[in-house]
Amino acid sequence: MNLFQKAINTQVLPQTAMGIQNVSVNHTQKTLHQRICTAAVTVGTPNPLTYLSVLNIFLSFTAFLGNLLILVALHKVSSLHPPSKLLLRCLAVTDLLVGLIAQPIYSGYEISLLYQRWDICRSTFASSLIAGYVLCGVSLPTLSAISVDRLLALLLGLRYRQVVTVKRMLLFVIGFWVVSSFAATMYFLNYLVTLSYCYIIVSLCVTISIISYTKIFLALRRHQVQVHDPAHQQQPGQIIPLNITRYRKAVSSALWLQLALIICYLPHGMVEFVLAHIGLSPVSVLARQFTATLVFSNLSLNPILYCLKIKEVRRAVKETIRQILCCSSY
User: Fold this and answer.
1) How far apart are CA 290 and CA 232, in angstroms?
2) How far is 40 from 38, CA to CA, in rounded Å?
3) Euclidean distance between the first and the last CA atom of the chain, given in angstroms as a whole number
4) Is the predicted pLDDT of residue 31 greater than 60, yes or no?
5) CATH code at position 221
6) Which of 29, 38, 45, 30 is nearest to 8 (CA)?
7) Predicted confidence (pLDDT) at residue 69 exceeds the cutoff of 50
8) How many domains are there within the chain?
9) Is pLDDT above 90 for 64?
10) Hey, CA dihedral for 125, 184, 146, 214, is it positive or negative?
11) Which helix (H) or strand (E) holds 3?
């Protein structure tokens, strides 16, 4: 117990997030890696790391296959509006890349802790962190863009297809990648800048999504009142001429994706806040690894939600699987 406490006091507690601001950039990054790896090892319970590393390898495999299948299915679906399909493709691509790159690196980080390879631990931790910031930094704005896209479909009506075009949506998607990549590379200069960007983008994206879905809910509520009450007749240009039933399903699928991301990301965000502003401890670092695995589980959950909530995608996925099975039988 004395050695355990001494390890925490000498390696963890003296350098909190406030202390990081008062040291040089290179020293900041080096001590950050070293403190994370050292604090995780002093827990003295390697079994959770074994289970988490195996689970992350499995989730990496399912995320890659699931999102690859969704991309193939989206290519076959022609009924979705092209800009909306572009956003779904962007989300599936980022999930696929996380499962292909960030998650295996993170599994390597956990394995390096098991075998006490501190040099590998620091490099894999930094690599997985940067890859996660880049790719997850694209997923959040993409989901917010999906909510805004659904709101514009309701408000613009017939003008929606003229205003929301593939070219304009592609510019937004490219912007997401550029800004997210720039913020992630700032990790090499000052980790707190990257962390601050993360807090800002998360708050902004969640706020935009809440406002969009609230406006959608209120507009649909007014439309329902007008349908059931003849006294409230639609004014010219007030109601959007669209298939309300189909639109509700599209909003429902987007909302489920948003809720799944919040549920999977929120615990990890809370743990990161503790690590950055209160200080490290073996328990908090181990909690970070559990919550990071929960974040990665979102990548495998999204393809399931696509199939459950989007009828066209579900049909295309079944057709793709049937073709694969038929080809493999020969």
Assistant:
1) 53
2) 5
3) 63
4) no
5) 1.20.1070.10
6) 38
7) yes
8) 1
9) yes
10) positive
11) helix 2-11
